[in-house]
Task: structure prediction
Amino acid sequence: MAKSGGPAPRAFDHAVHRLVRRIPRGTVATYGQLAALLGDCRAARAVGSAMQRCPHDIPWQRVVNARGGISLRGNVSGMITQRVRLEQEGVQFQRGKVDLARCRWTGPRRHPGR
DNA sequence: TCCGTGACACAAG
DNA sequence: CCTTGTGCCACGG
Result:
């Protein structure tokens, strides 16, 4: 009732996490891409923050930077893990980066099927 | 409410 | 190719 209206705290984070859940296996999405899908192509940085606080039951490894590389700054082991997990689901790396032209998620489809 | 921080993106040197 | 600087946004203290 009277309380509703304003966005609840961490609403953006939740939106990011839910979107990441929809990224198909074998494909990847960029921070900027997710931000754009959420309505703000300039919120890429916020997406990164949301990912740092993302639950472990989502395919977080499918989120990479605009260059198709892993951004995980200051987390070498996490970087390795992300790459391994992506390769395990079929994503190939070329020169340390993912071929976005080939593996980039096309975005959510309201009417799946063709 | 203000301020600091950061898994970004982009341009320039 | 790498480094640095700037702009944007949301979250947490």
In short: Residues 9-13, 35, 40-47, 49-50, 53 of chain A lie near DNA strand C (CB under 10 Å from a C1'). Chain A has one domain: 11-103. Residues 1-6 of chain A have pLDDT under 50 and may be disordered.
